[in-house]
Amino acid sequence: MQQAVEADPAHADARYLAGGSIWLEFGAIAQGTVYKPRDSALTLAKTNMHEAYVVVREGRLVGLWLPVEEAFAPMAQEVAIDLRPEARP
Q1: Is the distance from CB of 67 to CB of 51 less than 8 angstroms?
Q2: Cα 28 from Cα 14, distance rounded (Å)
Q3: Alpha carbon distances (Å) from 66 to 2, 25, 29, 73, 84
Q4: Is the backbone of residue 32 left (phi > 0), alpha (psi -120 to 50) or beta?
Q5: Is the pTM here over 0.70, yes or no?
Q6: Where are the beta strands (DSSP E) in 14-70?
Q7: Residue 67: its pLDDT value, please?
Q8: Can you give the pLDDT at residue 66?
Q9: Listed residue (81, 80, 15) closest to 46, CA to CA
Q10: Helix or strand or coil: residue 63?
Q11: Closest of 9, 22, 79 to residue 50, by C-alpha
């Protein structure tokens, strides 16, 4: 991820995604491509804590994928996100 992004899921606490973080493609769902963090954990806080991955469609963060629950949590408002392939030496 090139720049920091504030993810604001509907019905949950906002999350800060650090610039320079590395995300690995995990798969795809109807809402977009799912990416999981490589070296950290992302959680979604509602009444409980949930592991979360980002869902991106056409350069926009559209929601979070909750892999344990197999559920999609949409963003309150979609935001631009810049995921570029990692440079190889």
Answers
A1: yes
A2: 23
A3: 23, 15, 11, 7, 23
A4: left
A5: yes
A6: 15-17, 23-29, 32-37, 43-45, 49-51, 53-57, 60-66
A7: 93
A8: 92
A9: 15
A10: strand
A11: 9
Cα atoms in the Cβ-side hemisphere of radius 13 Å centred on 24: 6
Token readout for 9 is 């899921």
19-59, pLDDT tens digit by residue? Answer: 888 899 999 999 999 999 988 888 877 667 889 999 999 99
Closest by CA to 1, choosing from 39, 28, 50, 32, is 39
Quick one: DSSP state of residue 84?
-
Beta bridge partners of 70: none
Does residue 9 contact residue 44 with C-beta atoms inside 8 Å?
A: yes
Work out the mean pLDDT of the chain and round it to a whole number.
87
